[in-house]
Amino acid sequence: GVDPDWVVIANGASEALWLAFAALGAQGGALVLPDPGYPEYLSMAGFLQCPVRTYPVTRDGGAEAILAEAGAMACLVNTPHNPTGAVMPHDTIAGLACALEQRGTALIVDEVFHPIYAGAAQPSSAGLRNVITIGDFSKALSLPGLRTGWLIDADAARRERIVGLRGALAISGSPILEEVAIRALALRDTLLAGTARNVARNRELLAQLVADAPNIEHAIGEGGTVCFPAMRRGSLGLDDWAAFAREEGVLVAPGAFFGTDRHVRIGLGGPVEEFALAAPRVVARLE
Questions:
Q1: pTM exceeding the 0.85 threshold for the entire prediction
Q2: Do 117 and 222 meet the contact criterion of CB atoms below 8 Å apart?
Q3: H-type helices in the chain, by residue range?
Q4: Which one of 45, 133, 142, 280 counts the least CB within 10 Å of its CB?
């Protein structure tokens, strides 16, 4: 529902994020990132030598904490959030973008897990004033191998910088992959329905498993395809989870990647049959 000229195609959401960070970095100031958050945010910011501040992610995404940060070049909201599944409401995003615009601060909204929601569906942030929206085929559409993502920005001057950077970095995407992506978009309702069905069933199963597990703090978020349960007692580091993967053949993302040994990120979007085998093993490990 936006002007096609506002859309910049990228080689996955990672390149789209890099382009946004790089285009804004010339303005100076800090980049405000969620904590916990996708680890590559910090890697990209470090590579581009952008100063970083962080804000705590709350159940509704952390808008109040973002507004407490002053003098930033840009603030990033990831909704639905990786790894917690927290969702910032659309109205909150719009209000946040307006408040930040008055400070000369851009808002980047990484919504690669949109439109997978457990509760009420949320509109995309695309087209909101002072918002750069990031999306891709990898998460909700479950097509990571396409390496096709996008950035949507209504600001013509900023978008011109972004397009210039993309020309220097990658020149273009693959026409073959983009043709496959076009065909996937024609089937998006079917693809999204499959992801949503798996997530709903796997979320329900996991909730049942941890209901009687007193050592697990389990708060499944309101959206996305991941969750981030924690142990009330004890912790498990990278070596523990590596051994678990070897022993059990179950792949998870250790909380250490997100700055904590108490948590583990569990993917909810995979086949229901496989999740039913894997989830009890993870729960037993946390206990």
A1: yes
A2: yes
A3: 12-25, 40-47, 63-67, 90-101, 156-169, 175-186, 188-211, 238-248, 272-286
A4: 280
